[in-house]
Write a structure and sequence with these properties.
Blueprint (H helix, E strand, L loop, with lengths): L5 E4 L4 H12 L5 E4 L16 E4 L5 H11 L3 E4 L13 H22 L7 E5 L23 H19 L4 E6 L1 E3 L8 H10 L5 E2 L5 E2 L1 E3 H14 L7 E4 L5 E2 H11 L8 E2 L11 E2 L4 H7 L7 H14 L2
Helix pairs in contact: 1-6, 2-3, 3-4, 5-7, 5-9
Amino acid sequence: MSNQRILITGASGFIGSKLTHKLVKLGHTPHLLVRPQSDLTPIKTLVSKTKLHYIDIADREAFFATVSTINPHVIYHLAGSGVYSYTQLSPTNIQAILDTNIQGTTNLFQASKYLTSLKVFINTGSSFEYGNSKHPFSETSLPNPSNIYGASKVYTTNLAKIFAINEKLPVITLRPFTVYGPGEKESRFISTVIRQCLSNLNPQLTKQTIIRDYVYIDDLVDAYIASEKVGDKLSGNVFNICTGIATTTSEIATTIMKLTNKENLQLEIGGFPKRTGEVISLVGNPELSKKLLNWSPSTPLKEGIQKTIDWIKQHP
């Protein structure tokens, strides 16, 4: 059993829960920070193998006290709001993004600078920080977000750099691109199309050709683990977690139709409405992560989609 104290924010989310499962498998007993109203279903089998802390990351005083008491060696910051609702500009959604992504992350950076045992802090940014481009983004590309979620992540990435420089905080930022895999929300594109195909419904796509860089969830978790090993030597840096491969939504849908033996179905182009703030083309360059994190994606897209199909069949 590891004596390393690990803190994970957003542990009940898609990425956070998968990372938690991996760390427990590796022999750790991580401290999990979750909102009081969080759905713990993704980590329900791990409750006895972890240390749960119910707290709102935006509650500064309570949060400071909790983080100080844990005094972690490693922080994985995955708490966030808006990744599934970035096109919504309602006051409630905007406030949730401000509270969690900006105020909550600021609280965590401020609390972390007083920790005596902290070795590395892995912050989570987003590919949405970049905006649109026909060319792959590198970490030196200028941010140009198309929606409020991306804008909030630009703030937290820059704040991480400021704390790295001014407070010597051992923090790096990972920018995951389009993550998919077993356990993702039903509303996500790949899961939606899989369920449509399994229900003999024609997959519905937007009129616009949407291009993404798809990263399988297990590969992303491996990137977090790899970052923990070298992050203290790379403080202030940002890393794209991506494949570098551009794939259109129609290519994804066609692949799913083949893998589910539903090639008789037809793609309904225009059946899904255009969304405000949508990013049209978003592909990354993974070379810096390969070089400095010693990380590369290992799951081919077709294999990852098949694993997702198998999981959905078992969890209808």
